[in-house]
Amino acid sequence: MTEGRTDEAEHHDPDVHVSDREKDETPGPTGDVVAIPGEPDETGPQGKRRSPALLGGILVIALLMGAGIYYWLSTRNFESTDDAFIDGRAVNIAPQVSGQVASLDVTDNQFVRKGQPLIHIDPRQYVNDRNNAQGVLDTAKSQLAGLRYGAEIARKNFPAVLQQAQAQLASAQAGEVKAQADYQRQRSLPKQATTQQEVDAATAALQQAKAQVQQAEAQILQAQPVPQQIGVADAQVGQQQGQTEQAQARLDQADLNLSWTVVTAPQDGWITKRNVEMGNYVTPGQQIFSIVSPEVWITANFKETQLARMRAGQQATITVDAYPQLDLKGHVDSIQFGSGSKFTAFPPENATGNFVKIVQRVPVKIVIDSGLDPALPLPLGISVVPAVRVQ
After folding, report:
1. Euclidean distance between CA atoms 129 and 120, whole angstroms
2. CB atoms inside a 10 Å sphere around CB 343
3. What does each C-alpha distance from 192 to 35, 172, 313 come to in angstroms?
4. CB atoms < 10 A from the CB of 123, how many?
5. 259/240 Cα distance (integer angstroms)
6. Which end of the chain has fewer CB within 10 Å, C or N?
7. How far is CA 359 from CA 79, 340, 365, in A?
8. How far apart are CA 93 and CA 75, in angstroms?
9. Is 376 left (phi over 0), alpha (psi -120 to 50) or beta?
10. What percent of the chain has pLDDT over 70?
11. In degrees, to the nearest 5, what angle opens at C-alpha 77 toward C-alphas 75 and 80?
12. Which residues of 129-165 are buried (b: 16+ CB within 10 A; e: fewer)?
């Protein structure tokens, strides 16, 4: 009997069990639902913990969606890149003459003004060259003065010599006429009226008069090229003038070389990359300093896909990695007409072989308008992150 009842209990009717559960969940006298024994109660502690967790999840999702929408709305009109750096002008300083460094007047990272001496090169050799050039110039000037004086004399002497030769010719011609007349007179006289000695004297006088005429004519021919002779004198003056100018040029070069023994700053800026010490021997073209100009700007390498709406004049904000506290403001100055790869030492040749498209970057110059702190230097090359408002 006991085993039979046990089997009936194990194989009970499901309907009866459900009806019993429903019976247990029927409202009590006060209207409250009676919990089923052994089942979790949703209105109990577990049910209360599940509801705040669900609400928290929904709230987190809503916050994330809101943050995403806000980020999209706040950044859709900005183009930014981390491929950007501080740029500026760095002037390489090199001596113009060779020599030993006699004094070093600046040190590393020192701020210098335009015209301020940087180094002094031993000037003694260049002082001697200058004195030698001065002596050559003085000699050339003296010779030039003498030739100019001679040219002035030539302008007066050569015409006078010609006139003198012409006068001598006229005198010789007059003497020839007289001698010819005397000779003719002696020849016309009868022998009883003259002697052979007088005839011979008249003949000799005539021959001498003719010779004097020929001599005077030769002197005229010699004195006639007056303009040419004056031109020769002027040419000598011109030649000496050229030599004097060459001597002056050598003196000017010597003065210039002497002035170059003092290497000065060509502009304001900071001394960088000092490559010289006291006593070093320097040569022309040898880089001994670089001077970084106070004027700096941003060179930002934007992707080509970021340039569609970018124009000159658009405002930009700049964050400096080294100084996060700086709030720099600027504007787009210009966009380079060429990508960075175009100006490399070996530009790509896309017309040959296989081609793989690569997004190019184009340098954009951004001028800083405000926010600089004089106490915080901006070394060239440090990283920045500009954000350009393109609309």
Report:
1. 17
2. 10
3. 203, 32, 130
4. 18
5. 28
6. N
7. 16, 11, 19
8. 45
9. beta
10. 85
11. 65
12. bbeebbebbeebbebbeebbeebeebeebbeebbeeb
302: β partners: 362
pTM of the model: 0.63
Query: What is the rounded average pLDDT of the residues 38-51?
Result: 54
Beta carbons within 8 Å of 70's beta carbon, 6+ residues apart: none
* Measured distance CA(366)–CA(329) in Å, rounded: 10
How many CB atoms within 10 Å of residue 237?
21
Place of tokens 């009997």: 1
What's the pLDDT score for residue 267?
94
> CA torsion sign, 319 to 322 to 327 to 331?
negative
- Beta carbons within 8 Å of 332's beta carbon, 6+ residues apart: 310, 311, 312, 313, 314, 316, 364, 365, 366, 388
SS3 263: strand
Cα–Cα nearest to 209, from 181, 252, 175: 175
Domains and CATH numbers, the chain: 1-40 (no CATH), 78-88+294-389 (2.40.30.170), 126-258 (1.10.287)
107 φψ region: left (φ > 0), alpha (ψ -120 to 50), beta (else): beta
Q: Find the distance separating the first CA and the last CA of the chain, reported in whole Å.
A: 94
Tens-place pLDDT, residues 55-105: 888 888 888 888 887 777 666 788 999 999 999 999 999 999 999 999 999
For residues 376 and 326, the answer to whether their CB atoms sit within 8 Å is: yes
- In the Cβ-directed half-sphere of 263, how many Cα atoms lie within 13 Å? 31
Pair of tokens at residue 342: 């175009």
Q: Which two tokens stand for residue 215?
A: 């001599």
- For 369-391, write each residue's pLDDT tens digit: 999 998 888 999 999 999 999 87
Reported as a single tens digit per residue, the pLDDT across 154-181 is 777 777 777 777 788 788 888 878 788 8
Phi, psi of 121 (to 5 degrees): -95, 145
Cβ atoms 252, 130 nearer than 8 A: no
Q: Alpha-carbon torsion 359, 365, 371, 373, what sign?
A: positive
DSSP state letters, 265-326: -SSSEEEES----TT-EE-TT---EEEEEEEEEEEEEEEGGG-TT--TT-EEEEEESS-TT-
